[in-house]
Amino acid sequence: MSEPAFYPRYVEPRLVEALDDSPVVLIHGPRQCGKTTLARYTCTDSHFTLGDGAPLGLGMASERRDYTYISLDDAVARDGARADPAGFVTDLPERVILDEIQRAPELFEAIKVAVDRRRTPGRFLLTGSTNVLLIPSLSESLAGRMQIVRLHPLAQRELAAAAADQQRPAEFLDRLFDAGFAMERADRLGEDLFERVVAGGFPPALARPTARRRANWQRDYVEALVQRDVRDMTRIAALDALPRLLAVAAAQTARLFNLADLAAPFQVSRPTIGAYTDLLERLFLLERLPAWHSNRLRRHVKRPKLHLGDTGLAAALLGVDAAALKADRTLLGQLLETFVYQELRRQASWHEAPLRFFHFRDRDGAEVDVVIERAAGTVAGVEVKAAATVRPADFRGLRKLAAAAGDRFACGAVLYDGEVSARFGDRLHAVPIRRLWETP
């Protein structure tokens, strides 16, 4: 896929809202997903210009582009922050972007003290490539003072909008919970679907001209991340085990989390592999999707599912391109499920209503790949099928979810690579997978 250099980020309104009322705002997500670009695009004048030097002018914070940008990847800035965090923060300009804050965690306490002295909205805009929600000592130091904006790699909807020069977010989640899906036709994605899965969503990878160059970037990305960020976070003797562990996890994406299976290829203990897995989660490379439960369920599976953070990384680590993925139906099913799950997570990051994600499986084998719960308790389910047809039996898990959720059940959709959106019963629909990011 050949894409333009600039991509709309639909989470930007959430960022602007946070800057308007929170003294500290943290954009966090994996390295190279676009955090720095979003921060500087929204809050500085000098970063993006047209060919004649005129400002690009698309950012939503056009009246407040006076932030000073400081990267903690810079050794001098980082060493100064670590040596004297209080002095470093005291000397900062009125409004500042501190990029890659996890490289100087000593700053969190100093920022807390500065905010308690003067609580100005939007004073500190931080970016971080470590999930501070999984590090209580960091997140608690700024509790009540910091709002977190999660940025993912590019969603398919953002790629589609960039290619078509459209600024309207996808409506899939709204239709899933409220409007339903009308009878309509859509072209099959076919080969393009395999290409999208193996491409993933990291902007620098998508900028590469060929699939081979993309895969090279993705493999190098994992190695660089381990060598740089992991060394900062913890002392691990066998750093080379982490890329191998991530490759083993890639082969198990969209399966129930099984620590024994992850540990089997390694000559280290299960607790050690468990600690390594936690570390990869903190870097946004792995996710554990919890099981959905209800008081009406008696025989449900409680184990979480494992998902890679990006299917492009998974494909590169497994050494598969679009043709190889097409030929391996089992792996295609796994990566397609992760692809859909990650697209839904990315769209949820800019959705108005808070959404929580789960999976559902019972001991009779009925399952729903993705269960989404809205704040009011309304539940919807999405099942993913790597095929061009849908049959009534494909709705077995969704029917069980509907029975367990009762009146809370909003809708169930089977996404497939077909041509027709069709009803398969009360609040049950077959939907072409491209409708996940394309609005008719």
How would you describe this protein?
It is a single chain. The chain has 440 residues and is α/β, with parallel strands linked by helices. It has two domains: 12-150, P-loop containing nucleotide triphosphate hydrolases (Rossmann fold), CATH 3.40.50; 156-436, no CATH class. Helices cover 40% and strands 17% of the residues. It is built from 18 helices and 15 strands. The protein has helices at 12-21, 35-43, 75-83, 85-90, 107-117, 136-139, 156-164, 172-179, 191-199, 203-206, 211-233, 241-251, 259-263, 270-282, 311-318, 322-327, 329-348, 396-405, and strands spanning 24-28, 68-71, 96-99, 124-128, 146-150, 184-185, 255-256, 286-289, 305-308, 355-361, 367-374, 379-385, 409-416, 420-423, 428-432. Helix 18 (396-405) links the parallel strand 12 (379-385) and strand 13 (409-416). Helix 9 (191-199) packs across helix 15 (311-318), helix 11 crosses helix 15 and helix 12 packs across helix 15. The protein is globular.
